[in-house]
Design goal:
The protein has four helices and four strands. The protein has 162 residues and is of the alpha+beta class. Strands 1-2-3-4 form a four-stranded antiparallel β-sheet. The longest helix has 14 residues.
C-alpha cells in the first residue's frame, strides 16, 4: 500500500481514494482540500469539477485545470492553517501550500481556500493566493561610488554593481 499523496501518511486506500471514488463524503473542509490535491496529483479532473460549489461551476475552465494537473509533477501538500470547516460547521477556510514541478522548476502554490456546505456536502468555493511577505534588506544601502562590500577595493559600480 502506498501512502496518500495528500501527505497524511495514511494509505491512500483509507485516506483520499474513497472520497475520490465517491464511496465516502469528505467530513471536513480539510479532508476535501486533501482529496482535491490528490485529484490534481492523479489527474482526476472530474472530481475537481464535481467538488466545486454548484454556484461557481459556470466559469470553471475544465481544460485549463486539466492542462495544469497534467503538466505538473505534484510533490507535496502542506496544510498551513484551518479556520472552522469541521463536521459541525457550514463554512471553512483552509490555507495550504502545494509544491509541484513544472518545466524542471519547483514551484509552490500558496492559497487560502474557502469551502462551504451545500445540501450537506462540502464544496470548494474559491481561493485567494497568499503573497510572500516583502523582505527588506537590513544592511546599509551601497551607493554606486562606494567601495564594493565584497572587499575587492574597487568601486561598487566597477565590481559587483555591474
Amino acid at each position: 500500500m502506498s501512502s496518500c499523496p495528500c501527505g497524511s501518511e495514511l494509505p491512500a486506500e483509507s485516506c483520499c481514494l474513497p472520497i475520490l471514488q465517491g464511496e465516502l463524503k469528505a467530513p471536513t473542509a480539510e479532508r476535501l482540500m486533501r482529496a482535491r490535491y490528490c485529484a490534481f496529483a492523479r489527474g482526476e479532473i472530474d472530481f475537481l469539477s464535481a467538488s466545486l460549489h454548484p454556484d461557481h461551476r459556470s466559469d470553471h475552465d475544465v481544460d485549463a485545470t486539466r492542462r495544469w494537473a497534467e503538466s505538473a509533477q505534484w510533490q507535496g501538500l502542506q496544510i498551513v492553517d484551518t479556520d472552522a470547516g469541521g463536521e459541525g460547521d457550514s463554512e471553512g477556510l483552509v490555507e495550504f501550500v502545494a509544491t509541484f514541478k513544472e518545466k524542471d522548476v519547483v514551484r509552490q502554490h500558496h492559497e487560502r481556500s474557502r469551502f462551504s456546505r451545500f445540501e450537506g456536502d462540502w464544496y470548494f468555493v474559491d481561493g485567494e493566493m497568499v503573497l510572500p511577505a516583502t523582505r527588506v534588506n537590513p544592511g546599509p544601502k551601497v551607493g554606486r561610488n562606494d567601495p564594493c562590500p565584497c572587499g575587492s577595493g574597487k568601486k561598487y559600480k566597477k565590481c559587483c554593481g555591474r
